[in-house]
Amino acid sequence: MGIKVEQIVLRHVRMPLVHFFETSFGRTYARDIVLVEVKSGSVSGWGEVTAGENPFYNEEWTGSIWPLLIDYVCPRVLNIELDSPADVNARTAHIRGHNMTRGGVEAAMWDLQARIAGQPLSKAIGGGARQEIPCGVSIGIQNTIEELLENIELELNAGYQRIKLKIKPGWDVDVIRRVRERFPAIKLMADANSAYTLADIDHLKKLDEFYLMMIEQPLAHDDIIDHAVLQRELETPLCLDECIRSAHHAQQAIRLHAGRIINIKLGRVGGFAEAKRVHDVCQANSIPVWCGGMLESGIGRAHNIALSTLPNFVLPGDVSASKRYWKRDVVKPPVDVTSRGTIPVSDAVGFGYDIDLAYLESLVVRKEVLF
After folding, report:
1. What's the pLDDT tens digit per position in 202-233?
2. Which of 77, 144, 200, 335 could covalently link to 196 via disulfide, CB atoms 3.0 to 4.6 Å apart?
3. Does one domain contain both 163 and 291?
4. Which domain holds residue 247?
């Protein structure tokens, strides 16, 4: 049975963060998020375009999403009989890049199909390998090391199983040394967001003494070859993020031994269909994966939960509680984490949470309805 979308509603919402989040790109104080609602009859499916406010993580940003959705992506989905949500990927594949924009629509289509079929989203995508997912947190660059240590303590007390620290030149070795002195046994990783080059090999080798789980994407956002060079010099596993946009990229990285772990972000690879292909390539080659985050609202967070139920998501991901980022989320109940550092996987239809529509509408900056 096919799916035919009769209406798409685009909403650009602005959500202030509880606390600024800083990476090597800079600080974020609020998120401008584009949400996609696809309608078939009386049923709606929801997705989130996970691009940031600026074209720093990749080429996409909130301002680029809007015209691309209206002029290119949505017209290729509206009023067309699709055999599967995966067809969104195929019908928009000739659009160069812009995986997050395309993936936001595809994610909404998977949610729609799950709701029409009366299934949880995790089952609709072929997941369901676990009933709860292990959670870690990503902690941005802080004003002081003391603030960082206090934040780590707070997150550990909340039960999170793994701590990820954002690093950049000048905020790396000495900072992690202080963290290890204070927390010698915790699962700890570092995320560089492409802040280094091969000229920094000797400096990055100093991180080997801290028995990190991994160093995430230390080199250029589009590089695989230099990561292979760096991995040969390090004992610490490298985790690839920005440079893996497809299963083909994953195959190339694995063949070159460019890293030992891969982070799968739903938007970065263009949606569930390609995320599953990346997952399967990694599983076949004994490369563990985990789910990365992009400061999503509860809608994108719920999609990440579903993705994390696939069997090779064996490492704690960046999926964490709503309250870490938002005073009030756009889903209800908000996403919450158990004292064990896990999120239970909902067996409710679709992505498992209700939309707080009245609150969501109060956050809308602009809106477009497409027929």
Report:
1. 999 999 999 999 999 999 999 999 999 999 99
2. 200
3. yes
4. 124-352
Catalytic residue (choose from 265, 323, 327, 332): 265
The CATH number given to whatever domain includes residue 145 is 3.20.20.120
C-alpha radius of gyration, the chain, whole number: 20
Residues of the chain where predicted confidence (pLDDT) is lower than 70: 1
The string of pLDDT tens digits covering residues 143-164 is: 999 999 999 999 999 999 999 9
Q: Catalytic residue at 265? A: yes
* pTM recorded for the entire structure: 0.95
Per DSSP, what are the bridge partners of residue 14?
32
CA distance linking residue 78 with residue 109, whole number of Å: 11
Exactly one of 166, 168, 205, 323 is catalytic; name it. 166
Q: Would you state the structure tokens that stand for residue 225, as one six-digit string?
A: 């070859």
| Residue-wise burial string across 324-363, b where 16 or more C-beta atoms lie within 10 A, e elsewhere | bbbeebbbeebbebeeebbbebbeebbbbbebbeeebeeb
Q: Are residues 321 and 191 in the same domain?
A: yes
Dig out the tokens for 193 from the structure: 């967001």
- Provide the token pair at 231: 């991995």
Structure tokens at 146: 């003391």
What is the pLDDT, as a whole number, of residue 1?
62
